[in-house]
């Protein structure tokens, strides 16, 4: 410990002496004898040198001349954008699995979209400044644009708009109804979890209703990733975990068509047999006609 302090002291002394000597060696050449005599003590140049050094390093790393600095309004926009971006991204990750982003993050998306519109707008804001160029287009990375467009892309491919009202401020009635129907099925599953045979029997009606509603909403294009994922999970529970089978109405026409195909050869042979019978009768018929003709000829002759 004592050794360390001693060493530090020696080093400090050495440094002070070195700088002082260096200063002394510079001053005579740069200044007149008069100003050199005015220097009060050897310590002031040392402190001046150190403050100057820190000033230069600061100015190089962070401060630009004032005319290159961003407008205060744009800085404020950037601050709001940052807050809303973090809030929304946080929401997306929180509700990623099972997917519930549409129902939980639409407020976050709307406010992020709002502030993005302000930033990307060419319209000047208060103080007659537009932040579009200074925030968005000043470098090749265009980070603020790239960040937003990625999240916007996610929102679009999730098709969240289809689950929300037109102004995107609330869940649509269809979505709320689907969730209630889903809840009925899941509650039924929960009740009968112990006995899967009973579960398949008792929950069949509510599960069938859910599937039909889902099919109708698929046609209506009122589905989004939340509902698709919830249905996917429910479907897997039903068929894999509980091993239930829902007899499907689509199988009826399939069976009808395939049995028709099965009987096709028989029908073919039967029809060709009947056809040939008909031909036989037709072959007999012309003979009669001929005989009729000859009869008529005879009649003609006799008339
Ligand atoms: C964003 O723009 C809208 C109108 O274009 C304006 O009402 C709102 O105050 C702006 N927001 C901010 C933070 O400047
Ligand atoms: C805003 O700036 C534009 C061009 O810089 C100028 O033509 C316009 O008069 C300004 N408007 C106001 C209200 O200062
Ligand atoms: C949605 O439901 C609410 C209340 O149940 C009702 O007031 C509103 O009219 C419905 N909207 C549509 C588009 O059906
Ligand atoms: C269904 O809804 C009820 C009341 O709204 C709720 O208490 C229950 O937890 C829900 N069940 C499921 C499985 O989500
Ligand atoms: C499940 O329920 C069915 C019918 O109610 C019954 O026959 C069967 O023994 C039950 N199975 C179990 C494991 O409790
Ligand atoms: C589908 O759309 C039709 C008309 O647009 C509507 O009457 C019906 O209720 C919708 N069905 C569902 C399940 O949303
Ligand atoms: C349904 O789940 C399976 C497996 O979990 C997945 O591979 C598939 O992409 C899901 N489908 C949809 C429409 O999300
Ligand atoms: C359904 O089955 C999967 C895999 O077999 C299992 O990981 C999961 O926990 C099961 N879920 C329920 C609710 O039983």
Tell me what the structure shows.
The protein is mostly helical and 303 residues long. Among the domains are: 72-163; 173-241, no CATH class. The chain has helices spanning 2-30, 33-38, 43-61, 72-94, 101-120, 132-136, 143-157, 173-191, 196-202, 204-220, 225-241, 251-302. Helix 4 packs antiparallel against helix 5, helix 8 packs antiparallel against helix 10 (204-220) and helix 8 (173-191) packs parallel to helix 11. It is elongated. The model is unreliable at 7-60 and 286-303 (pLDDT under 50). The structure holds 2-acetamido-2-deoxy-beta-D-glucopyranose (8 copies). Residues 183, 186-187 line the site of one 2-acetamido-2-deoxy-beta-D-glucopyranose (NAG).
**Alpha-carbon distance between the two ends:** 159 Å
Low-confidence stretches: 7-60, 286-303
Classify the helix fraction into a percent range. over 70%
Bound molecules: 2-acetamido-2-deoxy-beta-D-glucopyranose
Let me know the average pLDDT.
74
Transmembrane segments: 252-274
Keywords: Membrane, Signal, Transmembrane, Transmembrane helix
Signal peptide: 1-15
GO cellular component, one term: cytosol
SSE topology sketch:
Elements: H1 2-30, H2 33-38, H3 43-61, H4 72-94, H5 101-120, H6 132-136, H7 143-157, H8 173-191, H9 196-202, H10 204-220, H11 225-241, H12 251-302
Helix pairs in contact: 4-5, 5-7, 8-10, 8-11
The protein binds 2-acetamido-2-deoxy-beta-D-glucopyranose (8 copies).
One 2-acetamido-2-deoxy-beta-D-glucopyranose binds next to helix 8.
Pfam families: OSTMP1
Organism: Sinocyclocheilus rhinocerous
Transmembrane segments: 252-274
């Amino acid at each position: 410990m004592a050794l360390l302090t001693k060493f530090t002291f020696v080093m400090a002394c050495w440094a002070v002496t070195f700088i002082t000597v260096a200063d002394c060696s510079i001053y005579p050449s740069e200044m007149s004898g008069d100003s050199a005599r005015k220097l009060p003590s050897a310590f002031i140049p040392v402190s001046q040198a150190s403050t100057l050094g820190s000033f230069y390093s600061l100015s190089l790393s962070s401060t630009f001349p004032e005319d290159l600095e961003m407008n205060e309004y744009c800085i404020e926009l950037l601050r709001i954008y940052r807050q809303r971006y973090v809030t929304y991204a946080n929401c997306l990750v929180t509700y990623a699995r099972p997917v519930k982003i549409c129902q939980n993050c639409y407020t976050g998306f709307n406010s992020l979209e709002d502030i993005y519109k302000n930033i990307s707008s060419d319209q000047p804001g208060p103080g007659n400044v537009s932040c579009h160029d200074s925030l968005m287009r000043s470098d090749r990375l265009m980070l603020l644009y790239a960040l937003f467009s990625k999240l916007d892309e996610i929102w679009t491919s999730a098709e969240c708009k289809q689950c929300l009202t037109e102004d995107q401020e609330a869940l649509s009635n269809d979505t709320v109804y689907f969730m209630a129907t889903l809840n009925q099925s899941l509650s039924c599953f929960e009740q009968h979890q112990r006995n899967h045979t009973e579960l398949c029997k008792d929950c069949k009606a509510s599960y069938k209703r859910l599937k039909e509603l889902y099919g109708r909403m698929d046609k209506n294009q009122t589905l989004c990733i939340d509902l698709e994922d919830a249905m996917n999970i429910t479907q897997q529970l039903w068929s894999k975990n509980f091993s239930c089978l829902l007899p499907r109405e689509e199988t009826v026409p399939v069976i009808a068509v395939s049995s028709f195909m099965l009987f096709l050869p028989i029908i073919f042979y039967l029809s060709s047999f009947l056809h040939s019978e008909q031909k036989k009768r037709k072959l007999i018929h012309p003979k009669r006609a001929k005989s009729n003709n000859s009869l008529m000829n005879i009649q003609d002759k006799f008339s």
